[in-house]
């Protein structure tokens, strides 16, 4: 079966307007062309789509049942043509963003809404990683853009720029932990208890390498959400993004009062110098920087 787009359009318009003549005016065709197209479709489908009255068309039961499928086919055809046109103009077929749990700004949600409106047919992928892992994923081409807590040094093959947003960090421990009973926590107090930290910080380029009292016992995990869960289970204290704690552990964790904390860390966006950004990635980069 080879259904022509013209026949499908003619059927959908005739169903919407209730007459071949009205459908013809909307499509810029003659009435006979529309009538013949619908008749061809009925022959190809072997069903009667309309009851043809003197003044108005009425969908048959079969016609009403098939109409939604025809509309789905036409919508898919429109998406196909639009996507093909965008790809022909240079739009990348897929955009991948990797970001740290440190970046939880509400502006990010607004940028995604704008991306959806501007490029509705673009395949978008987003996943979480931390510090060196973000850089590796962008450097390898696995991700087009990366968001992470700012670092002092970046690999020369990566470009970077600072966002207006900052990551807000505090020191947290489970409620009921001996540290949570102290009105003010000293560095010496922290040193008596296990610190929970990102395993990726072992490369000594993270901004939180200088955690107070972190020279003793240590457990590590590859992301902040796992660190949060370890803190909730009472395994130690951790420096965590405050917004992440409010979203996932606010009822279980206590924020410690330590000199110099909470602290804000700037957030950077990174991309590869050796792989030119496509139109969608370049647009998203500009929107992130201008927010």
From TrEMBL:
Family according to the record: Belongs to the LysR transcriptional regulatory family.
Annotated PROSITE patterns: HTH_LYSR (PS50931)
Pfam families in the record: HTH_1 (PF00126), LysR_substrate (PF03466)
GO molecular function per UniProt: DNA-binding transcription factor activity; transcription cis-regulatory region binding
Domain HTH lysR-type: 1-60
Record-given protein name: Transcriptional regulator, LysR family
Organism: Pseudomonas fulva (strain 12-X)
InterPro entries noted in UniProt: LysR_HTH_N (IPR000847), LysR_subst-bd (IPR005119), WH-like_DNA-bd_sf (IPR036388), WH_DNA-bd_sf (IPR036390)
Keyword terms, alphabetized: DNA-binding, Transcription, Transcription regulation
Keyword Nucleus part of the UniProt annotation: no
